[in-house]
Amino acid sequence: MSLKNVLFLFCLALISLPALAQQSTTPVYNNDQNSAKRQRMNQMIKMDEEGDLIFDHYGLFGFKLATDGYGIFYEHGKFINNQKTRTLTFELNEIKDPKDHKEAVSGDGYTYNYVSVGRLNNFYELKASYGQQFMLGGKGNKNGVAVTYLYSGGLSLGMLKQYVLNVYPAQSLFSIRSTYPTIFDSAYIVYNAQGLGGGWNHLMFSPGLNAKLAMRFDYGRYNTNIAAFEAGVTGEYYLNQMPLMAFVPYHHFFFNAYISIMFGKRK
Q1: What DSSP letter does each residue of 128-182 carry, written as one string?
Q2: Gap between the Cα atoms of 258 and 66, Å rounded
Q3: For 239-258, how does the pLDDT look when each residue is reduced to its tens digit (9 = 90+)?
């Protein structure tokens, strides 16, 4: 082999060495990076299984079913420590009198509709409450349930929307609008109720106070997600009496038991 060829091969080897070295070290770098990522994931899973909360706040939405109605709500929570949380909740509920019931009626003998006999008003309430939540027991593993108890209190705004019905006066082919108890005292034939769209021109408002005591059970798989149900009791007191049904005593105070389901995120 000539000296020229030897020098050419030597130069080629010098040029190739840095590239080969880089290729050999690249997988090591990737392996280190993947290992660190796996360690972080394992640490998060471990904290989830041990029930450690390393978050600042959370937000959730829920649906509530009570002994006197139903509603929806939004809750914002601020973590003070692993055991204590401050909460701010906003609710929209519909409240019904225990004697409120629906019956089938027909104004033409063929079409049957359902109306709440004797209902004077639909009762809606807006509530804003501030409270605290305390951890009783964390999740033992990712399939466990975290148990907390909570209480809250705040302000309420009660809204009464008149319950309006379409009726036929005696010997008339044309319907008119009427309400209870006038319908009881007249020879009207009830055809149907106007529903959500009627009665907004006769609104009454009343301020009030509310309080709640409850237990919450969070069964979410990871602490970043909230999937929980809650059971408790609430009470509301309104400044004015709230007329809901004809010939039924009006009340200032409303008490109920409820269950609710909620979903949200911790951050």
Answers
A1: EEEEEEEEEE--SSTTS-EEEEEEEEEEEEEEEEE--EEEE-TT-SS-EEE-TTH
A2: 4
A3: 999 999 999 999 999 999 99
